[in-house]
Amino acid sequence: MVLCLVTTLVHVVLVFLHVAPANTVSKRYSPTVNAWVYPYFEQNWRLFAPDPDSVNRQILARTAHTGSDGSVKVSAWFDLTAVDNSAVEHNPFPSHTAQNLLRRAWTTYTETHGGDDKSRTERALMIQKYLRNIAADRFDSHNSGPFDFIQLRVVTHPIPAPGSSPRTPAEVRLLPWWKVTTHEK
Questions:
Q1: What does UniProt give as the signal peptide span (predicted)?
Q2: DSSP letters spanning 136-149
Q3: Which DSSP helix (H) or strand (E) runs through 171?
Q4: What's the mean pLDDT in 32-53?
């Protein structure tokens, strides 16, 4: 009982420091606050002022497995976005996870990594692992067989403005191969 009360109090204080305007206390304890808040308790105001996407993204994954003879077997690309879309389509009560988990993980990845895929902060490294684990879990649940590495390819199609005829070509971003350990699959 006491442990629950203390945990609740600590949680409320840390989330308050996260959403409060910058002050001496929140600046001093910023690393601790961010470690507690991200990625599970992130606060934003998108519910009241949504920022709709101006692009359609297709996130694909493929895996590689090194056999006992040293040969490397690379899988075909698997469309992670199509899995999310099929879970939402024709579902009157789609889950928040099906709608947003992969999309938000990718958006946060691009915010923390820019265009060079280098993790320069602890948060960037955490988001990279988060995205890798989402992709590995989704790939593993739809395909059988072991894998040691996973790679993502993101195809971004800009949504043209109403009345505009020229279509902008799709942008393709290929991420590096990420090592996946057994306990992460």
A1: 1-22
A2: HHHHHHHS-S--SE
A3: strand 171-174
A4: 70
